[in-house]
Amino acid sequence: MFDFGDKVDKKTSKRREIVFIILSGVFLGTLAVLNILGISRQIDLSFTFFGRNVPFIVFVGVLPYPITFLCTDFISELYGKKRATMIVWVGLLLNIWVLFIMWLGGALPPHPELIDGLPAFDDPNRTFFQIRKWTFGATIASMIAYLTAQFVDVHIFHAIRKLTKGKMLWLRNNGSTLTSQMVDSVAVITVTYLWASDAIMIKMGETVVHGLIILILSNYVYKMVSALLDTIPFIIGTKWLSKYLKLDPTKEFKEREKLTE
Hints:
- Helix content is 70%, strand content 5%.
- The chain is mainly α.
- It starts with 9 loop residues before the first helix and ends with a helix.
């Protein structure tokens, strides 16, 4: 049971556990899916603005990514920095588990002949090995970016919370997420290119640097807009969950942080 230093009935204590498990489950499940599908497809959402073409390209794995930050922000706000940090470490272990399963799947027999890391085009094993190759690239890039970005998110969240004395919920939600997602976008695109460059399509006549900058900015803008849009559900969700769980994040976060150390 969670101990926040307050006396609550068993029903409320159970609610706190269930909500924590749900938030953690959504976070970890989303993380696993985006790592496996992460760079398997680039989605072109380019548009025309005042007669000029604006390139906007994102990986399919980035689509559910903002949910992970929303979950850690909820956990940070309701359960404290220690539990949010713990979930970040569990997420790292999940990444390692995904890598192990992918490695094991390729290590077990039969062993097809590989050319540049992949079976022949007519080999039914090619699909798995292609996903395996991209997943390795995406997961390794994600592990580096994930650790950096998530810890930045948690620490900035609580730094802003301390500076504002627990007030201005919208500021710590957006400030932490926008900063950490820029870190994540730069790290994941550059590491992915270095590890699995064949997953990143550079258009004819376009330099690698220009192509990577478009990907980084596109992915960041998507995350930035998502972060701004999730401010309202985060504020509403925090208020509702605070009442539902009988918590007061604004007045008691310092005491809860000490109790969860």
